[in-house]
Amino acid sequence: MNKGFIESFFGYIGRVCIFLWAIIVKLYYLPRSFRLILEQIVHMGIGSMPIVIFTSFFAGMVTAYQASFQAGDYMPDAYLGMAVAKAFMIELAPLLTGLIVAGRVSSSLAAEIGTMRVTEQIDALESLAIDPIRYLAMPRFIAGIIVLPLLTGLSLFIAFFGGGICSIFIFDVKPIVYIEGLRMQYYPHELWGGLLKAFCFGFVISLMGTYYGFMTEGGAEGVGKAATKAVVSASILILFFDLFISWIVF
Amino acid sequence: MIKIENLYKSFNDLEVLKGLTLNVEVGETVTVIGRSGCGKSVLLKHIIGLLTPDMGDIWVDGKNVKMLSKSELYKLRLNIGVVFQGSALLDFLSVWENVALGLTENQKITVDKAKEVVRQKLSLVELEGVENKRISELSGGMKKRVAIARALAVDPIYILYDEPTTALDPITARTINELILSLKRKLRITGIVVTHDMESAFYVADRIAMLHDGKIIFDGTPTEVQTTDNKIVQNFVKGGGQY
Ligand SMILES: Nc1ncnc2c1ncn2[C@@H]1O[C@H](COP(=O)(O)OP(=O)(O)OP(=O)(O)O)[C@@H](O)[C@H]1O
Ligand SMILES: [Mg+2]
User: Fold this and answer.
1) What band does A1 get if pLDDT is binned at 50, 70 and 90?
2) CB-CB: which of A116, A123, A131 is closest to B84?
3) Ranges A101-115, A125-139, B183-197, B201-215: which has the least confidence
4) Is the CB of B211 within 6 Å of ligand 1?
5) B86 in contact with chain A, both atoms CB, cutoff 8 A
6) B22 part of contact set with chain A, CB < 8 Å
7) Total-model pTM
8) Distance between CA B24 and CA B59 in Å, rounded?
């Protein structure tokens, strides 16, 4: 490992932390930015709903199918519901949602803010005595943190429903038995752990999207690069946090 | 009063400004001319503190821009309207939201009041009935005029125009030139106009300054510009001589 790598690695971490801190000090303006945050929540949340619903529905069906395929012969029917619920609560709902939204939202945040950077819109905000971190970054950051747990909840619900469809129509499990599985071996910290993951993923997604947006330079090409970097780094960090939180909570 | 002293700025290895000095008195309009890429826009960005000098100082109202804290700088910017070269309108907002942005974000003002100000500023630049349009629906020249209206919305003391008349047809360009003049005469707004358009330069300027090779190599009244024997200025004004 050469010195250049270490320097640039820690330099990078440092820059991200400074950027994060700049956002955090702007939380003071939170009440005033209510409308901006709401707009972003709607924009990110509603926009991501179709793909989250679609993916979760199929992932739920596949999970039920696979669980039954692997262990159907010597497993009581209710365990099917439990398998789907647990898999999605702990792991699949936050991770799937996180990765999908990372692809959709990080890139669009980076591209949107990056375009504003290269077309001098951010300079224009500065010239109007409006802090771009407060006006652009902070509302998006907060919206990301709020939206991800909500979408994860939605994903969980849809996946359980999808798994149910599969169990009921393919494996002749009675609906009531499938739903009963939800209560079996239910530990609240599994649900909270999953939502904590979602919270962190939202943090990572909006941080990376806005960070690379603000750091954009070099015209349209730079905007494209920023979008790519935002998605890649958000996805890597999501996988990292996934492991980290699983390790801490479970 | 804007005072720029011995300003140096380079980007990586590219030296853009090399000891630029320029004074703009209160109520005066100074036109800065110079070839494309000579650092005119960079100069304007230094005045509002978007770029920091490598060396040298900029004084606005007796305050040294590079020494100001962030909140002092923002307070200073409230007095300076800037028209960016590429208009730089926020494209997720409508026309009226753009023009009103400096008002709605920095002071308590009702929507009706803000809309009234917007209508008035837009009529100054001869734009009516575009308040609710999206930015992407406007032509380049309309964007430029909206950008001017936005710069005027907060009633600034200073206004910096970066090529306000490029991308405009001759008739609208004339309107803008007349607007710049009347703002100067009526409101005593101090202005710096960066331009390539010599006609506009002669029309609006009290003084014309030529930026060349990182320095102001000539600074004089429009008459002085026409009678100077400085070859570089002559050449620029006459558009490189005869064909
Ligand atoms: N942020 C920046 N990073 C690197 N180089 C820059 C930056 N801003 C400007 N430059 C360089 O500084 C030089 C002057 O740029 P500037 O935009 O001031 O030119 P200009 O005089 O306004 O030209 P034009 O009339 O074409 O607008 C150019 O060579 C440009 O490449
Ligand atoms: Mg320029």
Assistant:
1) low
2) A123
3) B183-197
4) no
5) yes
6) no
7) 0.90
8) 10
